[in-house]
Write a structure and sequence with these properties.
With 502 residues, the chain is mainly α. The chain has three domains: 7-132, Rossmann fold (3-Layer(aba) Sandwich); 134-164 and 210-295, Serine Threonine Protein Phosphatase 5, Tetratricopeptide repeat; 307-499, DNA Cyclobutane Dipyrimidine Photolyase, subunit A, domain 3 (Orthogonal Bundle). 49% of the residues lie in helices and 5% in strands. It contains 21 helices and five strands. It has a five-stranded parallel sheet, with helices on both faces. Helix 1 links the parallel strand 1 and strand 2. Helix 3 (82-92) runs parallel beside helix 4 and helix 13 packs across helix 14 (349-362). The termini are far apart. Residues 485-502 have low confidence and may be disordered. It binds a DNA duplex (15 and 15 nucleotides) through residues 142-144, 146, 148-153, 233, 282-283, 286, 306, 349-350, 353, 357, 392, 399, 401-408, 411-412, 471, 475, 478-479, 482.
DNA sequence: TTTTGAGTTGTTCGA
DNA sequence: GTCGAACAACTCAAA
């Protein structure tokens, strides 16, 4: 059976049947349908997901493929460059219509540009939708028709634009593929799974796929959503939504998530609970803002949004980067975070800020190094969120934290992990250290240390840097950089000299 | 064009 | 122990 004019849906980060405008439109068209996913193994840099993220992608594709089969179709997987694969497909099905949801990522944008050229050349119809964001990013602009660079006015504008239209229902029946000869490579041939079995920790805490996303949302709305405003900053409590990887791979649309939270909020009368739902909606808007910024400022993946920061005198040094990556800095909350990341592919948001502040401010290492590490290790690695987050902490991005806002890893630990449960979980060598000392073991009386079987410098490292001095060094570096009075590099190396004595 | 108000997540110091 | 101010200066966005 061949058709003269099938539909091709190009899936990228929208692996779902529910609230997927491109898929729904293609189904409505009624013609035979090809559900296409293209894997490009030659992608480099941020085009290639990290190992943790590839693990998720594998399982997400498997789950999505199952869902498509249940609806009467199947996932066609091909390897190569997206547009070349499509071009090839168009030879077999010359009058196809192509459907896709817009990607805000630079690579996705490049694919879209090439795709539009191809469509033009082949006289093929394309249908673009906006399923990855609440609102098409090109439509939110300031009065002077420029993109927003500040969250609050963006947030106001976004709320004014949002219609409370219900999300599209999940597609239940999909027209079959156009012909039995449509070839797909097996999922395993993408080699997304790591050969060593370090994913056990990840396996335990996540269920990739559309069903897993819905379960996670239900669980969140049942309880933690109500205490979110208060407890979301507590890494020792399980009160975040953990929706980030599901959102990243599009297993749940931001629109559906937004809608579900709104509904829960309306059903709930308690003022305190409403506050929590609002706080969470605001977080969804931050995710939207990140997508939006990446769409309008694709260069921010590698360079600061405010480009004069290119001249900032970051230190170029690899030893301390490695110490940070391994979670051996000697600051318990930082090390706990870095180890949680390594073992589970995830880190609590508050701790992401603390560890990022430590890298960029205490160690004065370039935010790009941290962003790359997070990209490689996070199961929810998302280019937009990662870029915005790191630049925010470093002070060179949208709504950047002021340069004098430097997280104190001890204060933050005491405040957000008051009993030290988070630290004890991920830094077991400190497990027996009493709470008053858990966030600053180097100040613990020797007897207490001995009783806890801790020998600083042997069983657990001494702090790699004195925070107070590191803070002053960062303040000075930023102040001098801002003034631009002296050549930043020369004045800075002098400063480094004083650091050597610490 | 100019002016004005405001800006996710912090820390420290001194009263 | 608690609280408010200072930490700098700049850019954005709207009036």
């Amino acid at each position: 059976m061949t058709s003269s004019s099938p539909s091709i849906v190009l899936f990228q980060t929208d692996l779902r049947l529910a609230d997927n405008p491109a898929l729904s439109a293609a189904v409505r068209r009624g013609q035979p349908l090809i559900c296409l996913y293209v894997w490009d193994p030659k992608a480099t840099g941020y085009g290639m997901p990290g190992a943790a993220s590839r693990w998720w992608l594998h399982h997400s594709l498997q789950s999505f493929s199952d869902h498509l089969q249940a609806a009467g179709n199947d996932l066609t997987i091909r390897i190569g460059k997206t547009v070349e694969v499509l071009s090839h497909l168009l030879r077999d099905f010359p009058k196809s219509h192509i459907f896709w949801n817009q990607s805000c990522e630079p690579d996705g944008q490049e694919i879209e540009r090439d795709l539009l050229t191809l469509l033009e050349a082949e006289k093929v119809e394309g249908h673009r939708f906006y399923g990855n964001t609440l609102v098409a990013p090109s439509t939110i602009l300031t009065q002077t028709h420029n993109p927003y660079r500040v969250f609050t006015p963006f947030w106001k504008r976004l709320q004014a634009m949002l219609r409370s239209s219900p999300p599209l229902p999940a597609v239940r029946k999909i027209p079959p593929q156009p012909s039995a000869s449509l070839k797909s490579v097996p999922l395993d041939s993408l080699q997304l799974l790591p050969t060593i079995h370090w994913t056990q920790g990840i396996h335990k805490s996540w269920t990739p796929g559309e069903k897993g996303a819905q379960t996670a949302l239900r669980k969140f709305l049942r309880a933690p959503a109500k205490v979110y405003a208060m407890d979301r900053d507590r890494p020792d409590l399980p009160h975040t939504s953990r929706m980030s990887p599901h959102l990243h791979f599009g297993e749940m649309s931001p629109g559906k998530l937004w809608n579900a939270v709104q509904q829960a909020k309306q059903k709930n009368r308690k003022a305190q609970d409403k506050k929590s739902y609002d706080a969470y909606l605001r977080q969804i808007a931050w995710r939207e803002f990140a997508q939006y910024l990446l769409f309008h400022f694709p260069y921010t993946v590698h360079e600061p949004l405010y480009t004069d920061y290119q001249a900032f005198p970051w230190r170029n040094e690899t030893d301390s980067l490695r110490t940070w990556q391994q979670g051996l800095t000697g600051f318990p909350i930082v090390d706990a975070g870095m180890r949680e990341l390594w073992h589970t592919g995830w880190m609590h948001n508050r701790v992401r800020m603390i560890t990022a502040s430590f890298l960029t401010k205490d160690l004065l290492l370039p935010w790009q190094k941290g962003a790359t590490w997070f990209w490689d290790t996070l199961v929810d690695a998302d280019l937009a969120n990662n870029t915005l987050g790191w630049q925010w902490v470093a002070g060179c991005g949208a709504d950047a934290s002021p340069f004098f806002r430097i997280f104190n890893p001890i204060t933050q630990g005491i405040k957000f992990d008051p009993d030290g449960r988070y630290v004890r979980k991920w830094v077991p060598e400190l497990a027996d250290l009493p709470s008053p000392w858990i966030h600053h073991p180097w100040e613990t009386p020797p007897l207490v240390l001995a009783e806890a079987n801790i020998s600083l410098g042997e069983t657990y490292p001494q702090p790699m840097i004195a925070h107070a001095a590191a803070r002053n060094r960062a303040l000075l570096a930023y102040r001098q950089f801002k003034k631009g009075k002296s050549s930043p590099s020369s004045s800075f190396s002098k400063e480094q000299g004083t650091m050597a004595c610490l």
